[in-house]
Amino acid sequence: MSDRSTFDAFELRLAGELERYVAAAADPKPPAEIAAVAMRPRGLAARARNASSRRRLLLIGLAATFLVPAALIGAGSIRPAPLPPDRALPARTEDARPSALPSAAPPSAALPQGAEAIFVRRANAPEPGVSIFAVRPDGAEVLIRHVADSLVSDGTLSEWGTVGGSGWLALPVEKQGGPWPMVLVDLSDPAAQPWVLPEANTGAIGPRWGPTGLIAVDTGNVGGTILIADPETRQTRTVTMPGGLVGGGPSIVWTADGGIVSSNGDGEYKTVPADGGASRPGVGDVFEPRGVWGDGLATLRTCTGDEACPGPADGRIERVETDGSARTIWRQSGNDRALAAGFGRGDDYWLTVDHSGGRQVTIVHVSPGRDEAVATLNRGATWQYVGAPEPSPDGSLTVVWIDIGAKPAAVVVPFDGTPQTYHTGQFAGFVDRSVLPTSATAAPGATLPPIGKPFPLPSLEQLIAAELAINPGERVLGKASHDGIEGDTTIRTTEIKTAMPGGQVYLDCRGPASATLTTGAGSTTSPCLNVGSYGIDAGSNAPITVTARGDMSWRVVVYAPAPPSAGDTPAPVSGP
After folding, report:
1. Taking the CB of the first residue and of the last residue of the chain, which one, N or C, has fewer CB atoms within 10 A?
2. 453-576 adopts what CATH topology?
3. What class is the 55-80+112-447 domain?
């Protein structure tokens, strides 16, 4: 099995920013296929084809693996006792059960003081920079500190941070033309001077915290060498990766005993010690608190119409091992479909599941022999992508990442019945409360919206306006839309009329099934689980059609990539 491009919720957000051309969790495809079908963006303003040079450079730099998808969870010293060596995975024979719906919190392994979620937001006061907040289980936001952009000589601090359990926060620096250095901020001491690492380059591969409080970051050569930094001693070392990193990104993956996974791209993996010692073959347990990778470097996939799963596209979730073998860990029951899934601890998993016609999201905890719906939250009309739950290490709450139009936000969901709260900004991970300083600057989090309309989807006009705001030179060659009718399961094919041949065709849809867009260049199927577009070239003069059930809401727009030349102005296009 070849390396897989495996993204978490934050990485998917950046994929949406990248002109829809970042491969999703599937094996790498031939260039011709990638060129024919553009993959998995989301958001009203997700395209960056003609974005400014600064934005384009930043997004392309982040495309390889994106920023900061991992965070060390829990308190402890920078040098805990050595972890046990890699061990073989136990045999896994159980199959999945239909999703049950009891309401029960997962088992708790309490931290000394309890977990708090860290959020980072861009802010202009008291001066431009980022503000860092701790969100308590009751939803109260406590300002930890503000870090000004003036800390760095050139560029601005990014809100896409990742926090380590000892209280250090890694922030990339967005810089015109690159490189993109990394800044480490000590959250336990608001007066401590942040540590700027100019030799790091976060523009190609996101930094990741390891199990012993060290952080690994690329040096700018896309995985050939990794910088290991100890924020407590402010010492660094450089480690050579003999076969590069893993995944289609690629990504930095720590093992549970403090090594970093290397791959030659042909399915052979090695573990490289962080001290630069000799590598050893294979991968055992991984350290991945944000749920992207499982032990043995396993990944998760949802078998919808756009995935290369053998068998029916029935919405089941499969755990896929590096040898290509797969087993089902969850099966869809009824109409509620899985939006996103992540690994928990050992053989348990966390899912977000579409519920009540898209009006709500259910959080499901899957463990051996048991599936539990532990919480349900109302889905806002502006929510686009919804990520997998990220449970706290003490089992007291979980955080669900959402995209609100190329901007980050999240919902904090306590398991003790405390009201759920909504927070803007980037969720950076958990720390123990004892790590953080006390502060009187607190504000309540926003409550969730009331239950709304089924499967909310932006209007055709909103989608076009957002696209043209970013790419004002584009022309609309054709458009069509349909709003779902509850209970109408009739499958219909609709042709989209265009003013002239050519262009790029985009499908946005939401509803209880998939929708297929067909052009002269081929076809692409969207699972219609989250707000976002699937794209394909118009190709030849063959008809452009969309096939979907009547209870699906969908939008199709055909764009020309350049202004019309003289005498080539298309006639106005009308659409439903």
Report:
1. C
2. Jelly Rolls (2.60.120)
3. mainly beta
